[in-house]
Design brief:
Shape: globular
CATH class of the largest domain: Alpha Beta
Bound molecules: D-glutamic acid
Number of domains: 2
Distance between the termini: 31 Å
Radius of gyration: 17 Å
Order of helices and strands: EHEHEHEHEHHEHHEHEHEHE
Number of strands: 10
Helix content: 40-55%
CATH topology of the largest domain: Rossmann fold
């Protein structure tokens, strides 16, 4: 048993989609979230910069005596985590759980992956999938406009629909039956993406799969909390608190209260 909080970070708001799932699968756990809203987006930055930002995010969470870190950011998970070892606590990214889920659920072996430019360029999703299932075919597409669309509250608009059909048409034509939303911002575009891909294509949320994986990991290592009251949630951001509170509720699926703090990184 371990009553310390779980630390979660993302470049901005997207990681809250993973927190939403964590709160549903482990409601009693305390969660400390860091969103690097002052430096979002990460996805179009150089590898060196993404690694540095990811190290800063991890260092921040380590100050909070956490038992597990979840890199709830596809870009940090694919571009930076392979270079960051031994931070002193368990750390998991969003890639492996999503890849396992996609392999389990595909019927025709054709798996699509969408993510930021950095994530797709790293090719990590495709590498993990084909190492787990060599017969799988992976088709990837970078969707660099999705994060700004979502962070600016345009997820449910005609603009989002137009941009998404342009990004997704190639994957649709390849006949993928499973599509990994390889960026934790993308669940907010789930409706739009599903309309374009069609109901026969199963969407895999990397944040949801990571939350379920985290639960299994903590249970296996006997590190779940033994409290039975609802866990405490604290949110830290590196930029304006007000806009995080306003938009964050959409990602979290519930209102964010007073527990948001601005911090220097
Ligand atoms: N949520 C991050 C991800 O999963 C957003 C990336 C970005 O900041 O560009 O990749």
């Amino acid at each position: 048993m371990d009553n310390r909080p779980i630390g979660v970070f993302d470049s901005g708001l997207g990681g809250l989609t993973a927190v939403k799932q964590l709160m549903s699968v482990m409601p009693d756990e305390d969660i400390i979230y860091f969103g690097d809203t002052g430096r979002v987006p990460y996805g179009n930055r150089s590898r060196e910069t993404i690694i540095q930002y990811t190290r800063d995010d991890i260092d921040f969470l380590l100050k909070h005596n956490i038992k597990l870190i979840i890199a709830a950011c596809g870009t940090a998970s694919s571009v930076a985590l392979p270079y960051i070892k031994d931070v002193g606590v368990r750390i998991i990214g969003v890639l492996e759980p999503a890849c396992h889920a996609a392999i389990e659920r595909t019927k025709n072996g054709k798996i699509g992956v969408i993510g930021t430019a950095g994530t797709i360029k790293s090719d990590k999703y495709a590498q993990i999938i084909t190492s787990l299932e060599p017969s799988a075919q992976v088709f990837s597409a970078a969707c660099p406009m999705f994060v700004p669309i979502v962070e600016n509250g345009y997820a449910d608009t005609e603009v989002a629909r137009m941009v998404a059909s342009d990004y997704l048409i190639g994957l649709k034509n390849q006949g993928v039956d499973t599509l990994i939303l390889g960026c934790t911002h993308y669940p907010l575009l789930e409706g739009v993406i599903s309309d374009i891909m069609g109901s026969g294509v199963e969407l895999i949320s990397s944040g949801r799969e990571a939350a379920q994986y985290a639960r299994k990991l903590l249970a296996r290592e006997d590190l779940l909390t033994d409290r039975t009251a609802e866990g405490r949630r604290e949110f830290y951001v590196s930029d304006d608190v007000e806009s995080f509170v306003q938009l964050g509720g959409l990602f979290l699926g519930q209102k964010i209260g007073k527990n948001v703090h601005k911090t220097k990184i």
